[in-house]
Amino acid sequence: MSLTSRIKSNKEFRDIISTVAPLKEDYTTLSGKTPFSKEYTCLVESNLPHAGDSSLVGVAFDYLARFRIGQIINNTDAGQYLAALSGIRKLQRKTLDFKLKDEYYLPLHTAVYDFIKNKEAISDGILLVALRLGKLEQFFRMRVSKDFDKNEFLTIQRSEMLIPDLKELMAVFEEKFISSGIVNKKSEVVFNPNFGISSFLVDGADADIIIDGVLYDFKTTGNFKYDSKDSLQLSGYFLLNRILREIEDNHLIIGSLNYDKISFNKVCLYKARFGEFEYYDFNVIKKELLDDTVINLAGYFDNNPGRLNNIFLAAPFADEEGYRNAIKKIANKNKTPL
Asked: Which of 70, 113, 179, 206 fits a 20 to 30 Å CA distance from 19?
């Protein structure tokens, strides 16, 4: 159960997150338009006939946006540690075809590396690569049916519609995101940030990107309206990082996990079809409320530790007992500042 799944299905968890989650009126836009309003102009119409197509385009766009940012800062890490790699490993186990990584995935990885390193222009080729990587990420996250057909799955259906849609989205991204100077060659960027032990506590949580202390979440929906799920997701990322920082900075952990030591207070939804930015700054929340929320969340994790008992699978020397004790100590704090 990932962060988004837990928010959707667990009321106790959702209620804790919601205490700091921003409402519609709490956001500001870069354009000055009213957030989530009819003032937005749709620049790329969503005309894809199948919901699955829209989902795939969304994942592919996430990849392409990161690759393009990788070009700006000259960092090929944008093409590393992709969920698509977990997808190909899962696909190999499912099909017992262990040549897939070398024969299918590695050429995609090479194409991404060349695209970033050589600062290549957006082409139909790299758009198709992103769609293929997107399919693999979807496979990693999906439940596999008994009648699963590998060849049918790896075929990009209706590419003649998906590629033009992606191309238009990237043209808007170039104009609104890249050309605006939000990211530059000196920017501090974390690609696909994870939240260490906090990710284990919710059975998986990884965000899109952090640029100069702002966490950006890319959305390709054609709906401009406010969606509370987005606010809860962004607030979840923020709180998971707060708990991670509290544990790692203030408690003795013998064997720690590898993670990106990140700090952010500001989040932003980038609506790719509108070229609009919806910002929220958690610094506006009173410290007492935020501290209480972290304590309550630690209490929840003390009773619902997610995949903490399987932490050794990812990090054999991780200090499971140390993490458990740290979570319990945070949960048992008096209502005092952290």
From this structure: 206
CB pairs under 8 A, 24+ apart, for 320-324? 322/251, 322/252, 322/253, 322/254, 322/255, 323/197, 323/247, 323/253
Strands 266-271 and 28-29 turn out to be unpaired
- DSSP SS3 for 183: coil
Residues counted in the chain: 338
Which residues are bridge partners to 270 per DSSP?
218, 277
Nearest to 128 by CA among 77, 87, 85, 164: 164
The reported pLDDT for the residue numbered 72 is: 97
The angle formed by the CA atoms of residues 53, 66 and 137, to the nearest 5 degrees, is 45
Query: Are residues 91 and 130 in contact, defined by beta-carbon separation less than 8 angstroms?
Result: no
- What angle do helix axes 228-250 and 11-18 make, rounded to 10 degrees? 80
Bridge-based pairing of strands 276-281 and 28-29 is antiparallel
Split at pLDDT 50, 70, 90, the class of 263 is confident
Residues 6+ apart with CB under 8 A from 171: none
Question: What is the torsion angle, in degrees rounded to the nearest 10, for the CA atoms of residue 196, residue 137, residue 97 and residue 315?
Answer: 0
Q: Any idea which of 83-92, 175-184, 193-202 has the lowest mean pLDDT?
A: 193-202
- 15-35 pLDDT, tens digit per residue, is 999 999 999 999 999 999 999
DSSP state of 226: -
Residue 318 has pLDDT above 90, yes or no: no
> Which pLDDT band holds residue 269 (cuts at 50, 70, 90)?
very high
- Amino acid identity of residue 229, one-letter, is K
Strand order in the sheet with 214-219: 28-29, 276-281, 266-271, 214-219, 209-211, 189-191
pLDDT digits (tens, 9 = 90+) for 101-145: 999 999 999 999 999 999 999 999 999 999 999 999 999 988 888
Q: Cα–Cα distance between 187 and 78 in angstroms, integer?
A: 14
